[in-house]
Amino acid sequence: MSAASKKGARRPAPAPAAPDRPGLAARLVAARLLGAVVETRTSLDGLTDPKGGHPGFRALEPRDQGLVKAILLSALRHRGTLERVLAERLEHPLPEGARSLRHLLHVAAAQILFLDVPDSAAVDLGVAAADGDPRNRRFKGLVNALLRRLAREKAAIAPLAGETLPGWLRERLVASYGVPATEAIALAHLAPAPIDLTVKSDPEGWAARLGGRALPTGTVRLAALDGPLTDLPGFAEGEWWVQDAAAALPARLFGPLRGRRALDLCAAPGGKTAQLAEAGAAVTALDQSETRMRRLRDNLTRLGLQAETLVADAASFAPDAPFDAVLLDAPCSSTGTIRRHPDVAFTKDAAEVEKLARVQARLLAHAAKLVAPGGTLVFSNCSLDPAEGEAVVEAFLAEEPDFHLDPVRPEELPGLGEAIDAQGRLRTLPSMLADPEPRLSGLDGFFAARLIRRG
Ligand SMILES: C[S@@+](CC[C@H](N)C(=O)[O-])C[C@H]1O[C@@H](n2cnc3c(N)ncnc32)[C@H](O)[C@@H]1O
């Protein structure tokens, strides 16, 4: 099919004022938001936030909002596959500047290949979206033919694992982990993440009640939800909170905390604060974001847990007395969470990773000053990149003779021995905790190291 063959088309008429066709507004918003993610690197969570999100998204009915999110998650998770299958079916590449055309094709193709949307609706609304945009109207015949062909041929189309990683990320992962491990990570990125819960007690009992399974690390894992999470038993009672199995590990590295003073720097929305409080520590939770801190307070209220909360910059926080336990769950590129947030692969890049590594080094150097002699400092984040993990800790230990690494022991991480490296640092990858059922498989990529201040 040829995009170039449309060259001689007449100048298109202006777009119709409002997309009143059922379902069209949702597709137009999806294409617009896809553009915002891949062109201006805006996070999907921000764009789809119920209060501060994109006005077009907020104007949609809740059902259409759900559809837009599902389309975008698929279109981003499978962006490499969509690029390939569309390119294979075009005689000539799409014009370089045809960005909005590309987005609407991806939105329609994602529905055809990956969602439970009737092909006819995906095709017709894709064509209508092209027809309604003066920039794309002359391509509507092409859109129609291309999408119909995809619908006919979809049984023979399968995503290839390597396609889930954009070039910059693949390059960095191969340099850090080698080709086979990178392929395994890419394969894990094909499936959405399970729903993981941290329970206050009795993981086996909660797993049975919620129809999930208890992982050896104590997390309760659900493959999918039938309705809103908030309707599940135990939510209103504050018996559990949503937290990836890997994100639940750093706070556990402190061991017993009853009666000890713990500081959670970079605390919001508070998954780890809740763990520290539930373990019996007197917790101070600090975050620089007032909005996120509000969420932390709401979460603690639901869970019936207490912590002192402060909105402040962790890089300059100066408490009256040092703490027995300090957790620095530092801001990072979040590449370990791509199964949940496939936009991260497109909103971050190598320069951002390096910049965040410098921020982490600065925060870690300051956090160290807040640890009492003999106290424990845990540094963690959800990046897959050793530049934001292993390298930060190595540079820190080279500068700070007052601290030493306390290796994590296999018995502390039942079922996850492979996540402890030769030096005793924690490094989880989405390819670990593999399960034959993809929706029950894997965990976020996380790094954590336990550092002790000499007494
Ligand atoms: C990865 S999130 C923390 C997740 C949290 N520990 C949890 O388990 O729910 C990083 C947090 O760091 C906060 N942050 C980033 N830079 C900061 C700084 N200089 N001082 C305090 N908080 C900061 C962000 O607002 C964000 O809430």
UniProtKB/TrEMBL annotation:
All residue ranges annotated as the SAM-dependent MTase RsmB/NOP-type domain in the record: 173-454
Pfam families with a match to the protein in the record: Methyltr_RsmB-F, NusB
InterPro entries for the chain: MeTrfase_RsmB-F_NOP2_cat (IPR049560), MeTrfase_RsmB-F_NOP2_dom (IPR001678), NusB-like_sf (IPR035926), NusB_RsmB_TIM44 (IPR006027), RCMT (IPR023267), SAM-dependent_MTases_sf (IPR029063)
Taxonomic lineage from the root: Bacteria, Pseudomonadati, Pseudomonadota, Alphaproteobacteria, Hyphomicrobiales
Any one Gene Ontology molecular-function term assigned to this protein's record: RNA binding
Protein source organism: Aureimonas endophytica
Active site per database record: 382
Protein's name in the database: MFS transporter
Sequence segments annotated as region (Disordered): 1-21
